[in-house]
Design goal:
homodimer; TIM Barrel; 12 helices; about 40% helix; about 15% strand
Chain lengths: ~260, ~260
């Protein structure tokens, strides 16, 4: 998906919500477990229920991988089922030497037709650039993450490491194929980060279960194209454990969508 | 596998060679492509041919993942086939928030019974600690990698980032469940790193195709338990493209084994 198409979808829906498909086999409603592919049945119902409120889906690859080859089948069916109006993110946090990152790019951009993948920056340019060689595909690079451990290394140095990551990586990609992960748990940091990368989109996790707020992120983080994809995973998909899980997920997505409409 | 068992195997064989199973479907001998599972057939022959020369195997997960669910089947058969005398490394470079790293740990320590996994440190303590909760399983944390991009961020700060990673992570694990990735392309750095982590094992990639040398690494990097697992992937497994690929791999492994014997 191109940046133009993404921005069009955002304005069409007045939403910049991403639904995280962290579809944990131990947390999906019990009545689905007797179906042939419980994870896919769950995702299908969640997608049907939320697609009018969101513009992106983000399967968290760990939850598929942990089921072995069956999980990868569920992932393939899920990515095929997501409407092509929606931006897709493989939340995989990959990154390795060039010849290996090239294989990861093949996995997520060819074997599975994702629009984007999250990538860890630690190994530098040759771990990131193979993903940027694809037309209309995106890297979403970890910068300042939402978790407790973000304090361990991401602020290292006189110039905090996450700032160096944002500065240097702008030589590798452009605002049309490179986004950054910026956690919602650091809303005050968005001011400085917008100075460093005014035009880029940010994928913002950490709203909901991790404690971040949509309005705080929007106050500091939007740009002329909105420039944010705010993700909620558990806060949407596990809104109910019962037969009504899809309706409950739709309601949670609708509430976030409602908060986002104020930005238009 | 415990540290005691690993050190015993190293002394028994007089080897600290790890064979990297970067089993690229586009590079394995053509005559295997007509078999039901070419990647597993290739790995099986490589394991049979090299097991007397090495003490560890390291499947590079990217090359399995890129084949979708079939690749994960090949990986499962491979890990089951590796003799339990050999230490196994999932070269996966994972790392995410706690609840997600917990899923990755489940994948590689339960769904597949690896002894260890490579982990990227960028996201800090909660991205690493779920892997350390398993008895007799290991984290191999990226510190100073072998690739060109290691210069981008790993030296960031007055105290280079890789040194901070090595120092801080020693509060998270011990020399009995935590190793570091230190590239063979920086042999002079081993002196300083041994001051910081004298007792830990290091997984050393970058010998062979990437240009590092076994003797330079051993000069600076060994400790009283040897303390090194030196990896070679392409330099061993793709020694020949013909019918004789397994014999050629054995010969390449034997040459590295011969260089290692001098350390005993």
């Amino acid at each position: 998906m191109t940046r133009k198409q993404l921005v069009e979808q955002i304005h069409l829906k007045e939403s910049f919500l991403c639904v995280g498909l962290d579809s944990d086999i131990n947390r999906i409603p019990k009545h689905l477990l007797s179906t042939a592919d419980p994870i896919f049945e769950f995702n299908k119902a969640i997608i049907d229920a939320t697609k009018d409120h969101c513009i992106a889906y983000k399967p968290n690859i760990a939850f598929y991988e942990s089921l072995g080859s069956k999980g990868w089948d569920s992932l393939g069916k899920t990515i095929d089922y997501i409407p092509n109006t929606h931006f897709t993110i493989a939340d995989a946090k990959r990154g390795d030497i060039g010849n290996t990152s090239r294989q990861y790019a093949k996995t997520f951009f060819e074997t599975f037709a994702f629009d984007s993948i999250t990538v860890a920056p630690y190994m530098g340019i040759d771990s990131v650039s193979p993903f940027l060689e694809y037309d209309d595909k995106w890297v979403i690079l970890l910068a300042l993450t939402s978790n407790k451990g973000s304090n361990d290394f991401q602020h290292h140095g006189n110039e905090p490491l996450f700032e160096t990551v944002i500065k240097r990586s702008q030589d590798w990609g452009s605002p049309s194929n490179l986004m950054y992960v910026i956690g919602a748990t650091h809303p005050e940091s968005f001011v400085r980060i917008r100075e460093l990368a005014p035009d880029h989109f940010y994928l913002v996790p950490g709203v909901g279960a991790q404690g971040g707020s949509v309005s705080a992120v929007c106050n500091y983080g939007t740009n002329k194209d909105i420039g944010l994809l705010i993700n909620s995973s558990r806060g949407i998909i596990f809104s109910s454990e019962g037969q009504d899980f899809a309706e409950a997920a739709a309601e949670s997505a609708k509430q976030l969508h409602f908060q986002m409409k104020e930005q238009f």
